[in-house]
Write a structure and sequence with these properties.
The chain has 185 residues and is mainly α. Helix content is 69%, strand content 0%. It folds into 2 domains: 32 residues; 147 residues, Orthogonal Bundle (Lysozyme). The protein contains 9 helices and no strands. The termini are far apart.
Length: 185
């Protein structure tokens, strides 16, 4: 019996050591994460207005996408406050006449909000409907075009409700609710 207990105890100690190392690393990383977006409201105002957006809409997107955490990373690889995909960031930077930002650059609130607001404004211009624009921001414009094709003539909210991914439906609903709340409606 003693021969079985010894390897089990060593395995348990090793597991505890690995867990302690992981937790220590996680604490170190989190303690160095940038501060929430509330510390940079002027960035939201400036970039939203530059691209013709309501700053409350941009704040609602930030709230839904990252909870205001500049260091947020999604499982799909979207980065920062507005959860920008690196490929999208490169395409937007090219349109803005900027060098392509690195993934690390996207953690900078100024860079992230600048790119995110331009992209959101572009989606609003392309789709002419806030629900569809938010759906395209979240799921990509190709998906929204495909959903519209399936439901010709349906209004934007209906297209998202009937054809969107569950995550996109939830995202659009959260943003619209937060935006209405911010505007006092």
């Amino acid at each position: 019996m003693k021969a079985i207990e010894e390897p089990a105890r060593r395995t348990s100690l090793l597991a505890l050591a690995v867990l302690a190392t992981f937790l220590g690393t996680a604490f170190w990383f989190l303690s160095r994460s940038p501060t929430p977006v509330e510390s940079t409201p002027s960035l939201v105002e400036r970039h939203a207005r530059t691209h013709g957006l309501d700053p409350d809409l941009v704040r609602a997107v930030i709230h839904a996408e990252s909870g205001g955490r500049p260091g947020a990373v999604s499982p799909a690889g979207a980065v920062g406050l507005m959860q920008i995909m690196p490929g999208t960031a490169a395409a937007v930077a090219e349109k803005l006449g900027l060098p392509s930002p690195s993934r690390r650059d996207l953690f900078d609130p100024d860079v992230n909000i600048r790119i995110g607001t331009f992209y959101l404004a572009q989606m609003r211009e392309d789709f002419g409907d806030d629900h569809l624009a938010l759906g395209a921001y979240n799921a990509g414009p190709a998906n929204v075009r495909r959903w519209r094709k399936k439901h010709p003539g349906a209004p934007g909210p209906e297209v998202i409700r009937r054809a969107g991914f569950a995550e996109t439906r939830h995202f659009v609903k959260r943003v619209m609710a937060e935006w209405r709340r911010a505007r006092g409606r």
